What does this fold into?
Amino acid sequence: MAPIGKYVEKFGGENFEVSTTFSKELTKRFTSEYCMRTIINNFPEQSMELLLKWSKDSNKRVRRLASECLRIRLPWAKKMYVALEYFDTYFELLSNLKNDTDKTIQKSVANNLNDLYKEEQDKFELIISSWQTENITKECQWIIKHASRTKNKKK
It folds into this structure.
């Protein structure tokens, strides 16, 4: 599966429908956040709309992909700022995932927010403060704690 994902990463950025359909299926079996980043860079608005839908998908690996491929500082990848450029959609997407019971999704959302903190602390605080309510779930509490690790190191 890895070579096919690499092929889409290198050459799939020109065909939105085929590449995103493949990436959605690939992530159910392997991983596809790297090939999605090429697509996102080439089709940011369409991608953000699609990822927002994927954040509500019944498959947990598709939901994780919706978050993971948007990370600003995804390891072994170039920085990508689409999340900042489409911040309202990004905020909504992460909010769709903040109470997910799957630990891999929680880690992805937390890592996403930790990346955000390193780039735009005000936007990080906006998201975190909106999530801290009386009815906060244990999943969301864990995400906030893990997302705040860089912030807490600076204190």
